[in-house]
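// run 5 | inverse folding | seed 20
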């Protein structure tokens, strides 16, 4: 192995462990705690957890652990050789780890937790100030807030109309909303990170990615004959796609940034 790869490989593997740990414990306990098997709740020893061993009852670790480990390792190596020109490798990897925690938890639990939002706000202010300056950073946060608030209230209206229609047809309805308060706060954080006007493009790209995912989900459910009307819209993990869009803009080649008007 090239000696220059040792550093990003080790840091990438460590970042993957942190992401997996936080995604395992925060949705369950809301604090740093001893991880437990998701199938039988038997607590892991730290040794067995860090070595990716099965729990005491023989349940194997979920595939997500390995996907995250190798994905973050690959991203770490990529950003080592192609770091963001604005924030560099170290701060960039910290931001990637934060994105990873939000992405995994939202995909698995449809949650954006308050502790991660608080940390993300502080991190976003630091990253934005380093890359864009305080003024652009704060303006980006305000822009993200206003854009996502408008979408949030549109989602509330859509949910109420959908519920009324289902009840009028005598069908069971729920009170789930397309967007949550966590998505609004996440938009503010991404606004801090990206600044204005880039945040509006990031939110648009995230919504488009979610739409493509939703369309593919509908097609798949139709094929296996398990489709239920509007279910995918209610439980869509929008936060994960907003994170994915921001990652593309920050860490992929600059052609994405160059198409956004200044």
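// decoded
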């Amino acid at each position: 192995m090239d000696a220059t790869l040792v550093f990003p490989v080790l840091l990438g593997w460590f970042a993957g462990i942190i992401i997996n740990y936080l995604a395992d414990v925060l949705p369950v306990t809301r604090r740093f705690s001893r991880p437990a098997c998701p199938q039988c709740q038997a607590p892991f020893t730290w040794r067995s957890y860090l070595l990716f061993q099965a729990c005491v009852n023989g349940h194997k670790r979920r595939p997500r652990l390995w996907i995250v480990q190798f994905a973050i390792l690959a991203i770490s190596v990529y950003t080592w050789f192609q770091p963001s020109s604005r924030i560099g490798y170290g701060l960039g990897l910290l931001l990637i780890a934060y994105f990873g925690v939000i992405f995994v938890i939202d995909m698995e639990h449809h949650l954006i937790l308050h502790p991660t939002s608080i940390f993300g706000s502080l991190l976003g202010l630091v990253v934005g100030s380093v890359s864009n300056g305080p003024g652009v950073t704060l303006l980006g946060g305000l822009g993200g807030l206003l854009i996502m608030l408008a979408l949030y209230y549109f989602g509330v209206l859509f949910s109420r109309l959908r519920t009324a229609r289902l009840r009028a047809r005598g069908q069971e309805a729920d009170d789930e909303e397309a967007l949550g308060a966590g998505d609004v706060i996440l938009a503010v954080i991404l606004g801090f990170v990206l600044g204005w006007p880039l945040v509006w493009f990031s939110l648009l790209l995230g919504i488009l990615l979610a739409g493509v995912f939703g369309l593919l989900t509908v097609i798949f459910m139709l094929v296996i004959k398990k489709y239920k009307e509007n279910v995918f819209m209610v439980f869509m993990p929008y936060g994960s796609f907003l994170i994915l869009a921001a990652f593309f803009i920050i860490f992929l080649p600059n052609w994405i940034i160059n198409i956004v008007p200044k």
